[in-house]
Design the sequence.
DNA sequence: AACCCGTGGCC
DNA sequence: TGGCCAAGGGT
């Protein structure tokens, strides 16, 4: 069949890469000489956490633990303290575990192969490809929430991305990448940056967009998002909030604390106990011989 | 697929 | 104020 005309490429990769080269923020993990380890730490910290909050913590971690084996040698409690209030402390716990595996099984060097990365704790579809592309310059589709939004708008003409589908999302982005490793990796970085600083969720800065002339969403008159409603998770009153309060007490204490100190942070005793139990099960908290509670390895 | 997992800033 | 969002991953 030849009746289907070729669809014009809505994303001009070279234009986008040039724009990135001229305007990219000088984030420290993008600096020359940053290792795969530095990139992995940054990508893990950036999961669901804004850049500005990650910056000082990443600097501290790189100074303190410049290699995976350095982090692996630290106690879990030290790692959780250094993670501070970045949120989702299980990310820190899994990064600690990944560091131990990298030190033991991969010569203390973060792997460059996507499947090898995926086998490490806390590294999923996004982070594995981000490390392969940004640390090692590989041609792999890197799909995060920003890239999904850019593709939804520029390629599909929709107001925003619908529900994620790893397989379809990877294929969409793969189709945009040039054949060679280096330019593909450069485009991956540029797509993410565009989604963050220009093609934003609210009030996108289309007047500053380097590819606005080819954007399907522009041509369609910038229609509003028409997909299924996105579910927003509650936080106030949830176990997540209570676990955070409990852990905050332990982070603020130099050593083990008594049960009463933990009881003070939440009035609902049933929920409090359930959350403390879950933290013990998760290995984020340990109970001492005298029935006090501490961060793992700190008693 | 749907739900759980922290934290803080913005409008 | 409270919904919404932020470079996701695990189950």
Sequence:
């Amino acid at each position: 069949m030849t009746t289907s005309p070729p669809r014009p490429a809505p994303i001009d990769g070279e234009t986008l890469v040039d724009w990135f080269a001229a305007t990219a923020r000088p984030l420290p993990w993008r600096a020359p000489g940053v290792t795969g380890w530095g990139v992995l730490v940054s990508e893990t910290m950036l999961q669901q956490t804004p850049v500005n909050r990650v910056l000082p913590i990443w600097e501290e971690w790189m100074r303190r633990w410049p290699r995976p084996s350095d982090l692996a040698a630290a106690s879990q409690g030290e790692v959780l303290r250094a993670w501070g209030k970045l949120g989702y402390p299980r990310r820190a716990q899994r990064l600690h575990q990944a560091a131990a595996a990298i030190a033991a099984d991969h010569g203390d060097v973060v792997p460059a192969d996507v499947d090898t990365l995926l086998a490490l704790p806390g590294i999923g579809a996004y982070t594995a490809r981000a490390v392969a592309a940004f640390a090692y310059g590989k041609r792999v589709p890197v799909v995060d929430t920003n890239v999904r939004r850019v593709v939804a708008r520029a390629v599909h003409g929709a107001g925003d991305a619908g529900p994620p589908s790893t397989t379809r999302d990877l294929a969409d982005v793969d189709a945009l990448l040039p054949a060679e490793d280096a330019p593909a990796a450069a485009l991956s970085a540029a797509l993410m940056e565009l989604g963050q600083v220009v093609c934003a969720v609210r009030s996108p800065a289309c007047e500053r967009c380097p590819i606005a002339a080819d954007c399907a969403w522009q041509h369609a008159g910038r229609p509003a998002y028409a997909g299924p409603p996105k579910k927003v998770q509650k936080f106030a009153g949830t176990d997540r909030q209570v676990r955070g309060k409990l852990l905050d007490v332990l982070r603020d204490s130099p050593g083990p604390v008594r049960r009463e100190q933990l009881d003070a942070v939440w009035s609902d005793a049933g929920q409090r106990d359930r959350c403390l139990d879950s933290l013990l099960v998760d290995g984020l908290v340990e109970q001492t011989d005298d029935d006090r509670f501490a961060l793992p390895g700190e008693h």
Remarks:
- Confidence is low (pLDDT under 50) at residues 1-6 of chain A.
- Residues 239-294 of chain A form one domain.
- Strands of chain A lie at 286-287, 293-294.
